[in-house]
């Protein structure tokens, strides 16, 4: 045991003026200049004063009265305040005076080598504790001399899951990663990722995906056409990144999408005027809409010289139109004036190398450079042989996809007979198309029948599990408005229903309500009428080929037609468009069915006979029985779908031919009439 005892502490705290303090050469960092953080330290000193005294010794010959052994940066901070004129040279500085040689040596060396550096995690925790002590951001910033933004950033970091800071202390993640964690609102997800870091399995990309996934920012391609000012004027909110590392975030996706659609509407209208079916989608890459085909790739060397020249001219016009599109133009009010010529030029260029197809549909999507991107789709130009109809393949029953439950497999359907005698595929499709439109009209006028059809569909989807679709709406029901390529609605049939729905869309827009609130505000009768119209427009009974008879769908159509006493002749009689796909013998048979006995009919040319037949039908208010869905149903013993299918297979019925693109359609959020987010505009 030693006789030496610890020296008793002596009162050595003094307050010499700043002008009397110099920097001692014994200071380990005597030669280092002031660093870039001195101004911030100066703010802390100005706000809180000198909390930890400077260690000084008496000055020697040629030195200032007192020399700083430890506290070099605090002295620089005070000198910074002096240079700014915020304190004067006589400002008293809190110091501890060391007079003995041993004490001076210890004061100069030990604070630098014995002091444990403070980890940034401890600073973050300390700020969090100050906030929990109900000290507000401004007060903390004022007390420490920090900028309020810096305190807010430290507060955000202090709110991460404790496991995150633990991984940070251990060096498993960096401060940049902690800032990323602070952007995650799900603390359970924070803990999961931080635990993987503690176990040595942290992957930066997973954190990046968790933060950036679904994040809508000012870099969104829709903003090129909408403009930030227009988005804000519509009520859209913008949130800046607290750490200044990521693009500003847009908080109102619906407002941005609605604004983009509004800006793109002139382009939609211009394309619709050309007879195209127009859709919009959130991005490119969608498969062809129902009833349309992707344009095949064409090698230019396979084109004729005339086609190559025409294609080069069309592309030159498109390039010239695209060159007129600029950032300022897109954000301005005259954006449509440059976009419409460009899209029309692209349409012309797309049509040149595909002489066997007709461009019939387009999907418009946002584009950061041009505001709008257009992807075109077509339909095959039919080759109609009027006097030599195609031989009809034997029909077959729709195959079950295997997803139905045992209960649904036992559902019986009424037997259906379909007359395709003498009809080629085009005529058959036209018949089923017009018949569908007729049933749409009658069902739209009968809300109770529509209610029955809707409830039955819900029962199949949700109780019998015969197919279900998932979207981001509360009720998982999917529907698509009926269409047939670029064929326009028939005014007296589905056209009438579409006009009603357009009027309702206008009323909805004027109400400024959300869909559920708007429907709830309708009178009961209006609700029922709207229900009927929506269910009706979702009907799709068209059959593209005589070999693709949809027996189960036809049986349901017959039941619906019976419910609403459907009679297509009450609204429409065969017109030239419908009759034009009939051969002369079939037209003659229609006249026989109408009991028209006129010898002139045998001498008329095809076009004249079409007009003659249309006039005869209009005079009599007559429509072909084949357009009645009840005409092919036999009220005999019901046949189970599986048995019916097996019987067809035994007869050698051909399987369905998929004429669409290979890619499946994407399904995203917004409305039941979307391609994903694709809003139908036709």
From TrEMBL:
Chain residue ranges for the region called Disordered: 639-682
Domain ParB/Spo0J HTH residue range list: 131-201
Acidic residues bias spans: 640-651
Coiled coil: none
Name of this chain's protein: ParB/RepB/Spo0J family partition protein
Natural source organism: Brevundimonas staleyi
């Amino acid at each position: 045991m030693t006789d030496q005892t610890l020296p008793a502490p002596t009162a050595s705290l003094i307050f010499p003026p700043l002008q009397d303090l110099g920097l001692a050469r014994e200071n380990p960092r005597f030669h280092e200049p002031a660093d870039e953080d001195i101004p911030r330290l100066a703010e802390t000193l100005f706000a809180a004063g000198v909390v930890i005294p400077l260690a000084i010794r008496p000055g020697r010959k040629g030195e200032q009265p007192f020399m700083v052994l430890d506290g070099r940066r605090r002295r620089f901070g005070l000198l910074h305040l002096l240079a700014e004129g915020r304190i004067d040279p006589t400002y008293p500085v809190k110091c501890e005076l060391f007079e003995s040689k041993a004490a001076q040596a210890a004061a100069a060396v030990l604070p630098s080598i014995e002091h444990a550096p403070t980890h940034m995690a401890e600073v973050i925790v300390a700020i969090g504790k100050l906030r929990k002590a109900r000290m507000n951001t401004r007060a903390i910033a004022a007390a420490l001399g920090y900028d309020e933004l810096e305190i807010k950033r430290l507060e955000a970091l202090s709110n991460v899951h404790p496991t995150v800071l633990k991984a940070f202390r251990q060096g498993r993640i960096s401060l940049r990663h902690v800032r990323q964690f602070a952007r995650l609102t799900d603390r359970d997800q924070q803990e999961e990722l931080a635990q993987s870091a503690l176990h040595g399995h942290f992957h930066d990309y997973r954190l990046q995906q968790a933060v950036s996934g679904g994040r809508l920012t000012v870099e969104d391609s829709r903003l090129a056409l909408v403009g930030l000012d227009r988005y804000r004027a519509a009520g859209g909110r913008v949130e800046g990144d607290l750490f200044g590392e990521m693009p500003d975030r847009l908080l109102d996706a619906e407002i941005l999408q609605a604004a983009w659609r509004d800006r793109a509407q002139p382009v939609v209208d211009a394309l619709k005027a050309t007879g195209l079916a127009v859709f919009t989608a959130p991005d490119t890459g969608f498969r062809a809409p129902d009833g349309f085909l992707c344009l095949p790739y064409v090698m230019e060397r396979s084109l004729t010289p005339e086609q190559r020249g025409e294609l080069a001219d069309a592309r030159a016009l498109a390039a010239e139109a695209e060159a007129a599109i600029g950032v300022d133009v897109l954000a301005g009010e005259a954006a449509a004036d440059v976009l419409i010529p460009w899209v029309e030029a692209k349409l012309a260029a797309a049509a040149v190398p595909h002489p066997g197809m007709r461009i019939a549909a387009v999907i418009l999507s946002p584009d950061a450079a041009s505001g709008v991107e257009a992807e075109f789709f077509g339909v095959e130009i039919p080759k109609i042989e009027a006097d030599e109809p195609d031989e009809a393949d034997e029909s077959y029953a729709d195959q079950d996809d295997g997803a139905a439950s045992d209960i649904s497999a036992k559902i019986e359907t009424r037997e259906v007979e379909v007359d395709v005698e003498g009809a080629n595929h085009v005529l058959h499709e036209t018949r089923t198309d017009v018949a569908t439109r007729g049933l749409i009209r009658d069902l739209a006028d009968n809300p109770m029948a529509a209610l029955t059809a809707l409830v039955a569909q819900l029962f199949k989807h949700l109780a019998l599990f015969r197919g279900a679709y998932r979207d981001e709406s509360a009720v998982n029901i999917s529907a698509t408005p009926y269409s047939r390529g670029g064929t326009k609605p028939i005014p007296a049939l589905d056209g009438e229903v579409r006009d009603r729905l357009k009027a309702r869309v206008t009323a909805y827009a004027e109400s400024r309500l959300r869909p559920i609130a708007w429907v709830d505000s309708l009178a009961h009768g209006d609700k029922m009428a709207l229900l009927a119209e929506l269910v009706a427009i979702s009907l799709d009974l068209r059959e593209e080929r005589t070999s693709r008879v949809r027996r189960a769908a036809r049986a349901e159509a017959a039941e619906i037609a019976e419910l609403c006493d459907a009679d297509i002749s009450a609204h429409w009689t065969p017109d030239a468009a419908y009759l034009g796909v009939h051969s002369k013998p079939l037209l003659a048979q229609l006249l026989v069915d109408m009991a028209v006995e006129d010898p002139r009919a045998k001498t008329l040319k095809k076009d004249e006979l079409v007009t003659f037949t249309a006039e005869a039908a209009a005079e009599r208010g007559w429509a072909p029985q084949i357009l009645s869905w009840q005409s092919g149903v036999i009220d005999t013993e019901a046949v189970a779908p599986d048995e019916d299918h097996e019987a067809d297979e035994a007869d050698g019925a051909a399987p369905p031919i998929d004429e669409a693109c290979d890619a499946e359609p994407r399904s995203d959020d917004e409305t039941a009439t979307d391609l994903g987010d694709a809003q139908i505009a036709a």
